[in-house]
Amino acid sequence: MPNAAFYRRVMGAFQALDSLVDWGNLRADPDTSRVTAVEDFYRKRFIYQLTQAGEAAEQALSAYDEALGRSGALQAVALHDIVTQLRALLVIAAEQEEGEPDPAKAHLALSALTSRFEALAENARAFMGSLQRTIDLHGVEVEVFLAYKDRLIQYLERFIQDLITLGGRIALLIGELEEQGRVGVLLRLAAPREAADAAPDEAEIAEARAYERWVGRWAGLAAWFVSAEGRESQARLLRGRALGAIPQLLAVVRQLNERRAGRSDRSADFRTLARWFAEAPDDPARHRLWHAGFELYPARHLTVDADTLDRRATHPVAASTPWAEAEPLRISPQLCRTGSYERRGG
Question: How confident is the model at residue 36 (pLDDT cuts 50, 70, 90)?
Fold first, then answer.
């Protein structure tokens, strides 16, 4: 016989389904396919189907989970592919100048180019984010970090080298394509092919929108690899971040090795000092510990002699008295002038 826990789980599942129906994520239709009696007809039997809003919510949650689990990568192979596609576009542009335009080739080459570029940019962004979390040791086991830090540094150095060589080559190819308006010609070849399946009454609008999308994609590609006045390219910024991550990783390794070797750090020193304060027998001992620990001694020009103590005992001054209203302290003119009480001889 099913136990009480089983019934609780079943009732919880039905409540969850009812909530999804109330939110509009599910549609509940009565299930009358197996009704053989009037009692079965009045019993709650539903067939649940995803609504359009529910399907959109499911896709959003899937994208959310994927983004949380994405670690990214620095795709050096994508740089080679981008170089290959840019060279193919140069060949297509040369054919167009000879009077033999091929929209299919232009569209396929541009599609492959932008696809590889978007994957490169997105994976690089995700990788640098996960790398920063690794440097900060957020959710990373120390033993795991020490085990793969050498491979990680080699990985960064290899990608930086490829980015320096291939990134410069890509920038030159982009500049060569942008000369004499070749890019605009290629984008105008690709836009009609992308909008070819649009409805007849929306063909012109679809083609104009397709052209605007291609212009935006090309602008993003150019901005990623080519620097402009007052703005560095994303490739240069990525290279700088990757270069800066290597010494940060080495600093983290050095700190971890120091801790593993038993060397004290500042936090350990403060904890030890706090324990000494707690174990001190009286306030004078705590004051001596404070002076020894932080090297904070009374200012040497505020000398308190016997006359000052007698005057303070006769006329005490509250600690809350503003300094402008308190009795001034007399300081030796010799100390003000030379910083020392002693008279220096010849």
Answer: low
Beta strands in 12-148 (DSSP E): 26-30, 46-50
Is the separation of the CB atoms in 301 and 339 below 8 Å? no
In 10 A of CB 28, how many CB atoms? 15
Q: What is the pLDDT of residues 93-124, one digit of tens each?
A: 887 666 666 788 888 999 999 999 988 888 88
CA 83 → CA 78, 86, 158, 198, distances in Å? 9, 5, 18, 32
What are the pLDDT digits (tens) for 282-296?
A: 988 888 888 888 877
234 within 8 A of 221, measured Cβ to Cβ: no
For residue 235, give every residue at least 6 positions away whose Cβ sits within 8 Å of its Cβ, in sequence order, or none: 163, 167, 170, 224, 225
Token pair for residue 92?
């297509």
pLDDT(299) > 80 = no
Q: Who's near 340: CB < 8 A, 6+ residues apart?
A: 334
Segments making up each domain of the chain, as ranges: 4-66, 71-260, 298-346
Which amino acid, 26?
L
> Per-residue pLDDT for 220 more than 80?
yes
For residue 75, the tally of other CB atoms under 10 A from its CB is 20
**Is there a contact between 127 and 207 (Cβ–Cβ < 8 Å)?**
no
Residue burial 253-271, b: 16+ Cβ < 10 Å; e: rest: eeebeeeeeeeeeeeeeee
CA torsion 254-258-261-266 (nearest 10°) is -170
